[in-house]
Structures are given as structure tokens and as C-alpha cells.
Amino acid sequence: MNVFVKLVATEFRTAFREPVYLFFAALFPVVLIAILGAVPSFREPSAELGGLRVVDVYAGIVIALSVAMIGLQGMPTVLANYREKGILRRLATTPVRPVALLGAQLVFSAVTVVFSSVLVFAVAGIAYGVPLPESPIAFLLAVILAVSGVFAVGLLIAALAPSGKAANAIGLILFFPLMFLAGLYAPREVMPQIIQNIADYTPLAAGERLMHEAMTGHWPNLLSVTVLLGYLLVFGAAAARLFRWE
Amino acid sequence: MAVIEVKNLSKRYGDTVAVRDVSFTVESGEIFGILGPNGAGKTTTVECIAGLRTPDSGTIAVLGRDPRDRALRTEVGVQLQESELQEKLTVREALELYSAFYPDPADWRELAGDLGLDEKLNTHFGKLSGGQKQRLSIALALIGNPRIAILDELTTGLDPKARRDTWELIAGVRDRGVTLLLVTHFMEEAERLCDRIAVIDHGEVVALNTPAGLVEQTATQDQTIRFRPSAPIADVLLTGLPEVSRVSRQGDRIEVTGTGNLLHAVTSVLAVNGIVAVELRLEQATLDDAFVRLTGRATEEHSS
Predict the structure, then answer these.
(1) Rounded to a whole number, what is the distance in Å from the CA of B126 to chain A's nearest CA?
(2) Predicted confidence band at B212 (pLDDT cuts at 50, 70, 90)?
(3) Which is it for the CA torsion A236, A239, A241, A244, positive or negative?
(4) Contacts of B50 in chain A (CB under 8 A)
């Protein structure tokens, strides 16, 4: 088996032995949508949401939640831990480059987001009749862009945090405002215009907007795509420049 | 043939000079020790040799190549201080994973057996004791069948039994033709294992010799022999020897101090006179003494 595949498999294996993280990363979004959908009024079409039901809108939001929990907290913490514990340094003495382990963790994280998203649509679809996105390709694109932009921010956290604990704390500090703007506590549609305008320039909200629009068959809007690619380029480049391997 | 050549290596961190003008060569098939007090620059030196740090000046060649040459990673196994693994990775998984990194790995089961890890194969890294982690670390350094193994603080954290077992293992690894570069602050380890030792202090090589050579080189103090003669013997017989500088008596015991091949000289005289030396004790300078004289500091074992 290819070494990189083995590294990815190792990431999965060790993650499965961290049930708390695995629960929050992979299962919490589906649990949340299941709870929200259980509220009868959330299953009524709402004029404020353009005729959609709250539970429909939250499908995208909980996926953004999964992206945020993994990209801003889980992944940076794991990577900062790998550095803190000298795992990256040990790898540097072998024929395998430490960047391969970083890549393996990114693959694990991205696959977990996808798994979590599939689970959300499966459960929400079966239990509450939440439809699949009208443009599945646009939705997939939205998820990829959201993951790219948010993970780039997470990588910069991993690059700068002196320890796993610090990375976790920084991720948590970013998590709440970014998640708020992405509509976790109330959908963006019900927020004042000014907040929505600010939200358009944050990675999670931009990703959530793309997912939301894909749900109703819209292709990605240029602003959100540009914002997310901007995060990917700027934060990604900064992370690549500043990442310390030891 | 030299497999590691270090010439005028210097490395500083900010204002602190970690290593200054260090030079030595390690010959193929030998066990070369780097000995020195904590903070002397030992680890910095081997990290430069392992290609993990870039020297400020000086040159290093490992198997004739730049240490940062990635092609060397299959030829050089490294055990670093304070390098952990994923908490939830089992010993078996770690060994299997790391053996997949190399084109011609050692049999990890055999290695685990040699290092006494076969009982722990299904234990998570986070649940291992310090000594077990250390042994796994050594196994991972050797798993690629390296031509050179660099081991930093090989037996720190091991109990005396495990330490001795590890020494045996290391001697066995050398017998297979692997060149070993050891960093240590344990005198006994250096004395037992190393063919040659570089003593580093304040970032500089203060002595480079065989363990016996180091002792000899620094032995300013005389050796002392104590014994009880089986029959009375005149002092003059002993003081007449060129090797002897002083003879004193304590009760029925004689203490002879001198230099050179003192023991042989004294026992020869006794033999000629038909006297047997009972309860003979030879007190010689040890590597420990040599170390203290070279660095002006007591070693870890003695100071702590």
C-alpha cells in the first residue's frame, strides 16, 4: 500500500479512538439537524426564509458547522499537537516528508466533512423530507470552496499556534463569531442587512451562502467564490510561509 | 573509511553559541560517542548531522553527501530526544507504518522482540511507560535497516536492566556493520559501547579519543594499589621502582602510589621476593574522572 494511503488510514484509525472528537466532527451536525427538525414549527414554510422551512435552511448551516468544527478546531489542534509532540520532527528524519502527514490530516478532515454532509442529507431527507440540492454539482462546489477557505484559515492557526491547546483556543475564539455570521444561531436571512454584508466577507458565511443558493438551484455567486478563493490564497500562502515544523 | 565528516561546524541561536568550530570524523562500523554535560551542544551537533538543522558555518558530509540530502533518509536512522508519536497509535501500528517508509525495512517483529516490546504490540503509545517509549523510539530509528544510526540519549529513562539490554542490542547492531553515533551523558554507557568519544563542552570539542585514551590523556592523578603482603616486605624494594612515587602503610596494609604500568612493576617485585599480594585493589582514574577534569563538572549520575 502506498505510504500516503497508510498515513491517511492512520489518521482515521487514531481519530476513531477519540470518540469525543469524532462525535463532534462527524455526528454532531446530523444530531443537530435531527433535533431542529423535531420542532414542528421548524417544519412549516416561512415567508421570512422565502418559503423554505427552517429545517431546509439548516441543512446547509449544519454542514458549515461541520466545516468549522473540523477546519477551525479539530484539524489545527491535531496539527499543532503533531508539531508540539515532535511527530513532524521525527518524520523529517525518515524518507517521508512531514508535509505528507499534514496532507493526510487534511484528507481525513475533508472526508469527514463529506461524510458528515451525506449523513445530514440522508437523515434530514428521510426524516423531514429535506430535498437534495437542486444543483448537486453547485452544492458540491460550494462545499469544496467552503472547505478550502475555512481550512486555509485553520492551517494558519496550526502554523502559528505554539501548542495543541493554543490552537484549540484560537479556533474556539474564531468559531463563535464566524458561526454566528454563517447563521448557526439564526439564519442569515433574518439578520439585518449590514450584518449580512459583513458576513459575505467571512469564510464560513460565504460558504454557507453558496450552499444555501445551491439548495435552490443557483450557481455560485461571484462574490462568495472570490471571497473563499481569497481566503484560500492569502491564508494558505501565509500558512505555507509561516508553518513551523518543530 | 569516514562515513561522517564534520568540519568546523558552528551554530548559534540568537546570541547563544550552541556549537563552535566542532570537527570530527566517524569511521565506518564504529560506535562513536558524543559526551558532554547538559547544554554542551551535543544535540545541536547531531541534529545538524541528521539534516534537521542548518549549520551557520562549517561543513558536514554524511556518506559523502550533504546531510540535508533527502536520499540519506533511507541510509540514516535517527532517534531524537522528546519525539513522541500519536497518542492512540499502537506499537504494532507504529512499527508497521514506519517500516512502510523504507525500501528495505528490518523485520519489525524481530526488532520489537529484541527491544522487549513484543508484549506491548497492542498498547497505545500514550499508555507506554517512559522506558517503553524510548525503546520504541530506538526500534523506529533502526527499522529502515540504516547504514548509520544516530541515537540521542539512547538509554535515558530506562531502568538498569533495560539499559544493559539496550547496550547489548546496540553492540549487536554494530556487529551487523551499522555505524553508530551516540549522544550520551552516561559514563558507563560511553565506556562500554564507544570505540571513540568526542567530549563536547560549551559547544567545543575538548577531547577526542578512545575511552581508555581519554582516561590516560587526562590522568594526572597517580594510580594507587592497596594490598596486604603475605610476608613482610621492605619499603625500599618498592620505592626503588621507577614507577613508584610513594609508599605508605596502614596497619598491615601497604598503599603504593605511582604512575605508568604500576601494577605490573609492583607485582613483579613481589613475585621475585616470593610474596603474594592479598586483597589487592587497584584504584585507577576512570572515564568519570577524565570527564570531570575535561569539563570541570560532575556528570549527571553523580550530581543528581
Answers:
(1) 11
(2) confident
(3) negative
(4) 93
pLDDT > 70 fraction of chain A, expressed in percent and rounded:
100
Average pLDDT over residues A101-127: 94
Q: Pick the residue with more confidence: B217 or A105?
A: A105
Residue B31, chain A, CB below 8 Å: the answer is: no
The ipTM, to two decimals, is 0.87
Q: Which amino acid would we find at residue A62?
A: V
* Count helices and strands in chain A by DSSP H and E runs: 12, 0
Q: For residue range B25-64, what is the model confidence (pLDDT) as tens digits? A: 999 999 999 998 888 899 999 999 999 999 999 999 999 9
Residue type at A130?
Answer: V
Least confident of A86-95, B137-146, B290-299: B290-299
Rounded CA separation A239/B266 (Å)? 73
When scoring A17, A93, A244 by the number of chain B Cβ atoms within 10 A, the one with the most, hence best to mutate, is A93
| Rounded distance between C-alpha atoms, residue A158 and residue A164, angstroms | 8
Contact B78 A17 (CB under 8 A): no
Phi and psi dihedrals of B223, rounded to 5?
A: -85, 160
Residue of B nearest to A100 (CA): B101
- pLDDT band of residue B113 (cuts 50, 70, 90) is very high
Distance between CA atoms of B35 and B55, rounded to whole angstroms? 20
pLDDT of B147 above 90 = yes
Residue closest to A210 by CA, chosen among A130, A150, A153, A124: A150
Question: What's the mean pLDDT when you consider all of chain B?
Answer: 89
Which chain B residues have a beta carbon less than 8 Å from that of A87?
A: 83-86
The one-letter code for the residue type at A133 is P
Share of chain B above pLDDT 90, in %: 50
pTM of the model: 0.84
Q: Strand B76-79 to strand B179-184: parallel, antiparallel, or no bridges (unpaired)?
A: unpaired
CB contact residues (below 8 A), chain B span 131-160, against chain A: 140, 144
Question: What's the angle, vertex CA B253, arms to CA B252 and CA B259, rounded to 5?
Answer: 150
CA distance B40 to B49: 16
SS3 B39: coil
- Tell me which of A12, A18, A94, A105 to substitute to probe the interface with B (most B C-beta atoms closer than 10 Å): A94
List all residues 6 or more positions away from B188 whose beta carbon is below 8 Å from its beta carbon: none
Nearest neighbour of A87 by CB, restricted to B70, B77, B86 = B86
